[in-house]
Write a structure and sequence with these properties.
The protein is built from 10 helices and 6 strands, in the order αβαβαβαβαβαααβαα. By secondary structure, the protein is α/β, with parallel strands linked by helices. A 6-stranded parallel β-sheet has the order 3-4-2-1-5-6, with helices on both faces. It holds the Pfam family Urocanase. InterPro entries: Urocanase-like, Urocanase_central_sf, Urocanase_Rossmann-like, Urocanase_sf.
Length: 216
């Protein structure tokens, strides 16, 4: 319902076939995102750093395909988008790499490949394994978290700034991003990312929340 309502409200579309939804997280509640994309009839690309979570969703049938290759992900996205095929593709990697690749494709071809975007990393707990920084691989990041949590925190905040910078570039071209209630925008703001709503008070963000703005 969230994905469908986001399409209705922000894309003015009842039919999401051929539309692309990019997000991250395939753990607990976030694992439903892949299934939601297919039910809604769109192309869902969901990034996840933890291979175990990815494989679990695939085995359950909630995720149709898995890839750790961004070239392959972009090729599948283009194909499914063109042919209006419902697809849930799990990208085994960091979502920041995926967002930055979409910016690269936009810069290179002028083509905006994503229509809807969100995030379901556990950003309510970003410095204790809820969010993994793009600068390190999953195992390397887990090691750093246990040996130097202060350095891990710095890398997480750097990653959040990159994360938002890529989203902002795509949103400026027409992608619609929303907060999925996981404190992503709040932690991004604390990290110094550009998420504040221009001309509003500091508690207002430039992107809507699924509770107030989408589900209502």
């Amino acid at each position: 319902l969230t994905v469908l309502n986001a399409g209705r409200r922000y894309l003015k579309a009842e039919d999401l076939s051929g539309k692309v939804f990019v997000t991250s997280g395939l753990g607990g509640m976030s694992g439903a995102q892949a299934k939601a994309a297919v039910i809604a009839g769109c192309v869902g690309i969901i990034a996840e750093v933890d291979e175990a979570a990815l494989l679990k969703r695939h085995k359950q049938g909630w995720l149709m395909e898995i890839s750790n290759n961004l070239d392959h992900c972009i090729a599948r996205l283009r194909e499914a988008r063109k042919n209006k095929i419902a697809l849930s593709l799990g990208y085994h990697g960091n979502v920041v790499d995926l967002w930055e690749r979409l910016v690269y494709e936009l810069d290179k071809t002028g083509e905006l490949l994503v229509d809807l975007g969100s995030d379901q990393t556990s950003c309510h707990n970003p410095f204790n394994g809820g969010y993994y920084p793009v600068q390190l691989g999953f195992e390397e990041a887990k090691q750093l978290l246990s040996t130097d949590p202060g350095k891990f925190r710095i890398l997480v905040q750097e990653s959040l700034r990159r994360h938002v910078a890529a989203i902002n570039k795509l949103a400026d071209k027409g992608m619609f991003f929303w907060d999925y209630g996981n404190a992503f925008l709040l932690e991004a703001q604390r990290a110094g990312a550009d998420v504040e709503k221009k001309g509003a008070n500091k508690t207002e963000f430039r992107y809507p929340s699924y509770v107030q703005h989408i589900m209502g």
